[in-house]
Amino acid sequence: MKNSCLTVLFAVATIALTATGCHKKAAAAPPPAPKPAVATSAPAASTPASRPAPAAERTVASTPPSRYPTAKQQARIDELLARIEDAYFDYDKHTLRPDAIKALQADSTELRDIISQYPDYKLTIEGHCDERGSEEYNRALGDARAQSAKDYLVGVGISTNQLAVVSYGKDKPVCSDHDETCWQKNRRIHIVAQATN
């Protein structure tokens, strides 16, 4: 009797497992093939094929803007820097004279408008002195002259972070005669673009 109960239980378990196994196989059957598409006169924009465009737009939008000017804009900056004349100073002075302000004023607004778009682009304002005085004194005076020009350019809206100052004192004269006409040419500031990496 025990054997017949076990046999019945075994038979019931086998049937249950078989039924369950068949049920899973039926559920795993592949879906029916899609119906063939019928051409309609609906606009192409409503079809699913137009969906990849927004993903492409997101890729373009996530690309950060360049932090340096294009070659065309760099050429324009170079042109402006060449036109901005050196600003000259009186003997032993670092305040901007009216003619120095005029020299800086000429193209500084357009220069500001271009470089403000490129925060990593920087300019250096060089301060220079004539040959008279000690090396140490002329370094300090050249620095004060460059700082005066920087303050002016910051006043017109160029970011202080984009302007560096350096003093060459009397080390880089543009004229080597020993008279006032030559010395006047050496008491100046000069603006250059910093080299990019």
Task: Give an overview of the whole structure.
- By secondary structure, this protein is of the alpha+beta class.
- It has a domain at 71-193: OmpA-like domain (60s Ribosomal Protein L30, Chain: A, 2-Layer Sandwich), CATH 3.30.1330.60.
- 49% of the residues lie in helices and 11% in strands.
- It has six helices and four strands.
- A four-stranded mixed beta sheet has the order 1-4-2-3.
- Helix 5 links the parallel strand 2 (123-128) and strand 3 (163-169).
Please report the number of helical segments: 6
CATH class of the domain at 71-193: Alpha Beta
Structural class determined from secondary elements: alpha+beta
- Major sheet description: 4 strands, mixed
SSE order, one letter for each helix or strand: HHHEHEHEHE
Question: What is the H level of CATH, i.e. the homologous superfamily of the domain at 71-193?
Answer: OmpA-like domain
Low-confidence stretches: 22-26
**What is the CA-based Rg, rounded?**
39 Å
Gross morphology is elongated
| Spatial separation of the terminal alpha carbons | 94 Å
CATH architecture of the domain at 71-193: 2-Layer Sandwich
Average predicted local confidence, pLDDT: 78
* Helix percentage range: 40-55%
Task: Briefly say what this structure is.
This protein has six helices and four strands, in the order H-H-H-E-H-E-H-E-H-E.
